[in-house]
Amino acid sequence: xxxxxxxxxxxxxxxxxxxxxxxxxxxxxxxxxxxxxxxxxxxxxxxxxxxxxxxxxxxxxxxxxxxxxxxxxxxxxxxxxxxxxxxxxxxxxxxxxxxxxxxxxxxxxxxxxxxxxxxxxxxxxxxxxxxxxxxxxxxxxxxxxxxxxxxxxxxxxxxxxxxxxxxxxxxxxxxxxxxxxxxxxxxxxxxxxxxxxxxxxxxxxxxxxxxxxxxxxxxxxxxxxxxxxxxxxxxxxxxxxxxxxxxxxxxxxxxxxxxxxxxxxxxxxxxxxxxxxxxxxxxx
Amino acid sequence: xxxxxxxxxxxxxxxxxxxxxxxxxxxxxxxxxxxxxxxxxxxxxxxxxxxxxxxxxxxxxxxxxxxxxxxxxxxxxxxxxxxxxxxxxxxxxxxxxxxxxxxxxxxxxxxxxxxxxxxxxxxxxxxxxxxxxxxxxxxxxxxxxxxxxxxxxxxxxxxxxxxxxxxxxxxxxxxxxxxxxxxxxxxxxxxxxxxxxxxxxxxxxxxxxxxxxxxxxxxxxxxxxxxxxxxxxxxxxxxxxxxxxxxx
Lengths: 284, 248
Known about the structure:
heterodimer; A: alpha/beta; 10-stranded mixed beta sheet; 3-stranded antiparallel beta sheet; 10 helices; 30% helix; B: Glutaconate Coenzyme A-transferase; 5-stranded mixed beta sheet; 7 helices; 12 strands
């Protein structure tokens, strides 16, 4: 709990469970070796924080993408910070393939847990509901199954003639997302991005950077409330304007396609990647 | 009569024909031509006084009414609420298997592609999956994929009400015959011959002497594409929309 905010929380008649910190402090709260949940580019991605994590030298992460990843994941891989990657896809969208990801796969530098989008959601849903697994359609006959010890084919307990896939719960230790707005009580507005809501419900802790902090509660407006992640899921908030650059933030600002192209070109070689990371600054 | 149109306009028009009768068409990320084809189907139906078409374009705000996050598409599909969807693939083989993962070994693939996305699920559940890949070559259309992201057909006892419906490339249109698990050449695009298609395809297929030419759009449809569709597409795909011909 940070100075100055406790009083407001008390005045509001509620216990403030969310820490308000600086981005630099938030980075210190994310240790190496954890299972880290991240958003797709443009829908909650926070490349400015990823840069701070890389500068701090974070290592051995098990990264969970919800359900795909982009430039921010590629940067983490390029920096050698990812030991296990659990995702349905990694790409730079219109710009093309993710260069550090492709290189790391070729060189066997990370353990890959290839998935499919709805299986990631099923695993997160299981964690959010506090159950060990979730059944899911499809997948049988896909080579994905051969490489996923955490997925199994089983019989439908209510109809033994039917085979069905079950996937283990996915519970990130920490999820790190960027959102348009939080209020002074720790509630975070996500709008329609309910997959980010699911990620937060599934994770032990969620850290959020935001464009701005509202003085009034986001839950006071019934029109907004259903799109708000309540403070009880939010462990820490940091105000960090423009932190989604260059990947963009849904309904706030667009992808900077030219910058992503610059990155893609530079990151074709390990030397180019390092030069990009030291020679360019986050616009945040 | 046939008008002069670009190859991409022919593909967009062909996609709209393949979507005839669909009530809800969903389009995944990074798919500008399927998005344009779906928008054209919607516009043509409206013009012809036919059924409304729900178009859900992932990545769009205006042409996407999902409020349940990106998992809602998959829930919709499992309930039978989506009639048509599109898949690409680094490799597609003659049995309809698609590979979106990589070539040359797994997991340390020599060439790695983004990953399977929702293919391993939607291929089972969406009745009309249109395989779309502009490049028509033996390295893409292979005899056997290196990695099966999603299988073309399934054995008995596996819940499956969806699968491949057609395969469209910049050179030809195939249908998929689920009973025999093989593609059938339906038409060849203008400027190509069946002989060339055989040379350019790494798997064997039925009707390989096909002499049908893929029909192009009439003047009114082409005008619709160059005005309304181009404008609608620009919200999600500004660069691609700008590359399409504009109405004179």
